[in-house]
């Protein structure tokens, strides 16, 4: 089963996303900041990193960059209200990362996750 690591600093949004992904059959581990999520990535592999961009301690782009250094095969999806930041070619965001702009419907999230994991 694919394992998803979720990094989202908004508590309500994080709980909402975890519940939706678990209901879709995924194993989800979540953190409220990028540094804690990165520390977990150092301990075990995940199939997908689902991360907000703007977070305390380590932003999502830095987290994604470090995650792909640890595991070049990890898939990355940003969930953000700042899509232009992630899509900026000057950012350090992994080139194969997908961006899902807030607000989004949970069905869209699950569909995008399914597509990424099937690729």
TrEMBL record:
Limits of the Rhodanese domain: 18-47
UniProt entry tagged with the keyword Protease: no
Domain Response regulatory: 3-117
Gene Ontology BP term (one): phosphorelay signal transduction system
Protein's name in the database: Response regulator
Biological source species: Microbaculum marinisediminis
4-aspartylphosphate modification, residue list: 52
One Pfam family cited in the UniProt record for this chain: Response_reg
């Amino acid at each position: 089963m694919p394992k998803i690591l979720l990094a989202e600093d908004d508590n309500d949004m994080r709980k909402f996303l975890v519940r939706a992904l678990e209901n879709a059959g995924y194993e989800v581990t979540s953190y409220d900041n990028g540094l804690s999520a990165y520390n977990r990535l150092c301990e075990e592999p995940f199939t997908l990193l689902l991360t907000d961009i703007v977070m305390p301690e380590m932003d999502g782009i830095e987290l994604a960059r470090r995650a792909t250094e640890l595991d070049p095969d990890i898939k990355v999806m940003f969930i953000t209200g700042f899509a232009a930041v992630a899509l900026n070619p000057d950012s350090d965001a992994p080139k194969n990362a997908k961006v899902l702009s807030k607000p989004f419907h949970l069905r869209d999230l699950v569909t995008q996750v399914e597509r990424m994991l099937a690729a």
